[in-house]
Amino acid sequence: MSLEEKFSWEFLKNVADALDSYRIRVLIDAKKDVLEVGIYDELQYETILYKMLDEEILKYSLFNFLKNKSKANCQDLEIFSKEFSIELNKTLSLLELLKNEQLVDVKELYDKIEGSEDNPETLIFKDFSIEATNGDISKIKSIYEPVKVVFESKNCSGCGLCAAICPVNCLHIYNGFGKIDEDKCIRCGLCYFVCPRTYLPVRVLNMTQEKTSEIKEYQNIGHFIEAYSARTKVKEISEICQDGGISSTCLHYLFDRNKIDLALGAKMSNTLWRPEPVLLKNKEDILSTAGTKYVNNPNLQLLNLNELKDKKIAVVGVPCQMQALLKSKIYDIGFPSLNNNEYRIGIFCMESFSYESLLKICEKLNVDINDAKKMDINKGKFFVYTKKGEELNIPIKEISHLGREECEMCYDLTSESADISIGSIGSPSGWNTVLIRTEKGKKLYDELVSSNLIESKPIEDVKPGLPLLQRIAGSKKTNSKKHINSKLEENKRVPNY
Ligand code: SF4
Ligand code: SF4
Ligand code: SF4
């Protein structure tokens, strides 16, 4: 039954008005435009609208609940969760929305554990102190504006999800920069809603990964169940992979056992070292994606392709892409291609460059980019290996000004929001460090081992192991905080983590 048959269109508009939901009103008004563009069919459009209405109703129920108390805390959030039969994590995600819409003021209270010379002081989460505003909701301007504000403030990670979600296909990302066709934009704000650089409840993301309702702080590499050092035994992959070939082996296995129909990844375009998003259809396609790419690539943009509908997919991507996918799972508004995403395979990422910056790095190393066979970041240096067998390197410090400004605020090295995270830091050359974060990731890894597709060692058995990874991930977090604070001092927009 269509929405119009179930409820009159006027009724739906009135509900949206009563909720003061600008996003929903706009989407209702733009029904004709959305269906004409054809990214979503009528049933999908209605599913999205219903889900959004449910979510808004729940959010305002929480607001009203909090408004009836002078001050609320964790216990009150638990009471609300029970009353509405939802997980505490869901309530926390709604609280985050209310906070971002400036409808509540949330303070976090901590216990301080004194440190010693060897152990720094630590803060342990104790409780929230929550106050609902007394302001008139209808006077509060919607925060869900188009992500142009994210592009212009140099906050965009370039993940590509906004372009996939846009119901009128008026947004595109290329070479790390986004552009909106303002004549077509219906200002629904959906791009803002899914973007990992508008607001991102990092603690809720980690709690969702851990499947816990215990509110706590997470360490430098996020939640993980097990950690290994591993390398592929698949000959075609080992011949071309950069390190241990584990991400390619995951896809190889998933295609082979029909656990996925399609995968999203990045391959080199016709311009060498300028990657482009690619839709992988079988295990032979995987070989085109081998090797680390240092130029930003909006893989998630492909999620709006029609051929993805009703297909099981895996996404291989960098941490900001894993964050975008998990955020959209937490705030599920029924977008079809996001629901089909079966596996999040995350890769480690220290920073990314524009193609033009990569050219400048090659210039500094006195090498033609077309002669480069492999690039790598290791031991504080950027390496270029040439087709003639030369090894050239430059200290990262000397090229850090060439990294994307947008990446300076990135807090995540190890893809904390993936099912399984893979990178080279912590393992010997030719091996990958693998962090297993979810039950799904664990099952996949165990099956790779039992199918004899990979060689696996506990990470404790290899050097330098997790201590190095923890240290580098920690310094990325510290640098991210520094950049965010200095932007705040200049009154510039920053992501709300
Ligand atoms: S650009 Fe953003 S606000 Fe504009 S129509 Fe697309 S999703 Fe909606
Ligand atoms: S971070 Fe991702 S979702 Fe946000 S504006 Fe950039 S490309 Fe779009
Ligand atoms: S450093 Fe962060 S924001 Fe930049 S590409 Fe990597 S994961 Fe994305």
Characterise this structure:
This protein is α+β, with helices and mostly antiparallel strands. The protein has two domains: 3-143, no CATH class; 226-354 and 403-489, no CATH class. Helices cover 37% and strands 19% of the residues. The chain has 19 helices and 15 strands. The chain has helices spanning 3-6, 9-18, 22-29, 31-37, 42-67, 74-83, 88-100, 148-152, 161-165, 190-194, 202-210, 235-240, 246-256, 319-330, 336-339, 355-364, 396-399, 439-450, 465-489, and strands spanning 104-113, 122-132, 171-174, 177-180, 226-232, 262-268, 275-280, 313-317, 341-347, 372-378, 381-386, 391-395, 420-423, 432-436, 454-458. It has an eight-stranded mixed β-sheet with strand order 7-6-8-9-13-14-5-15. A three-stranded antiparallel β-sheet has the order 10-11-12. It binds iron/sulfur cluster (SF4) (3 copies). Residues 147, 150, 156-162, 173, 178, 195-197, 298, 324 line the site of one iron/sulfur cluster.
